[in-house]
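We modelled the chain as a single entity of 152 amino acids. Its sequence is:
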Amino acid sequence: MLDSVLTKDHERIDVYLNEFLLSLSSKPDMDKLSLIVSSLRNHMFWEEEYLFPEILEENKLRIQGLEAEHGSILKLLDEVKRLISINELEDAKKKTEAVMRVLKGHNEAEEGYVYLKLDELESQKQADLLIKEVEHASAPKDWICRVLRTGS
């Protein structure tokens, strides 16, 4: 169960990264970049604070490596923002491509081993870990429930 959810989240973020990379050829989509950063931070938070600790004992070095990559990915994205702020779009494009390369290997490591280990946890434990993610989720700031939107 966790493997499927986390892999789908990787795929969602990859789509955002591809869309952002395309925007660097004309006008950088800073909203998309913010969405990428917040999505990655949320994903990494869930992994580091809740998921990885569940399998840390037998996988300490592997987890430490993945956490180090989390830091590298976020630093690269900070550099992308900086490059855009000084209008160095070609360099921002190269850094974005670097983020995508790092994420590709990183995601393969997570999906090919770590997530499979998480899927070995009891169903109730997996459900509890999913609830931890839901607890930290938030609706978009401008979201209004359907009844209030339509006045029904």
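As a brief sanity check on the tokenised model: The helical segments are 2-23, 30-55, 60-85, 89-118, 123-136, 146-150. The chain has one domain: 2-150.
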